[in-house]
# Entry
Amino acid sequence: MTNQVNKELYEALLNIGLSSGDTVYVHSQLFSLGPICNAQNADELCRIVLDTFTSVIGPEGTLVVPTFTTTVARCGGSFHLNKTPCDTGIFAEFVRKNQKSTRSLHPINSVAALGPFASQICDDVASTNYGFETPFHRMLSADAKAVNLGFNHRFSNSWHHHAETTLNLPYLYNKLLDIEVWQGQKRIDRPFYASLRYLDFDIHNDLAPFDQHLLQNGKMIKHKIGRSYVTCISARTYFNAAIGKLKQNPWAFLKSTPKFRSGEIPWDGVTGK
# Structure
């Protein structure tokens, strides 16, 4: 199949700093771009976007997308590594279904990757979603770049969760996931878990001030494309900035201070003798 490269997107990706050999983690919302690719259907649009990214990062580059399946956690059911569709947009699902892609094993926060570092990022990962030995930890080691394509206001990425988990912030807990996990015909019996926010303390993220801080300080590059934007930032730069903010104020990524109640976890007081 002949590659279909969109000139406007190709130039935008170069303008935000992507180059040959990069490992790129892409959050996308393609419908917000408008008709930049003149695609006839969703699959053709995704093919053009994939071909354009591949043309920029080359055969030595690796493309990674979030293939999250949070509806499995919310609504129940099982997770099948090779079959369960993702909730993170048509482009992520298109990459997941690519026969050459590799998907990491986690029932709610997997990623899928195409390229020479796909196995290094996705294989034999930890049983949790963020933290040591997860794909996000490994992408930091690979000096990945985080790209958001098609967002008008939200420019943050998955590494804010990775930073929150790394610092063990008190509004998070480790939830054991009551989800059957299958890899092919084999059921995986080990426990899977996830770093998640408590649900009953009015805890809501607000990353807009952090996004603006990164843009204003030149750490994140933003470029207009179609009806929306594409942004890029080094994952390591983003993570380090997030850690710096959260060390000063553990509530920095929240709309307000959590309404913890004295005597209840996580503010349950002394433990006694």
About this structure: The two ends are 70 Å apart (CA to CA).
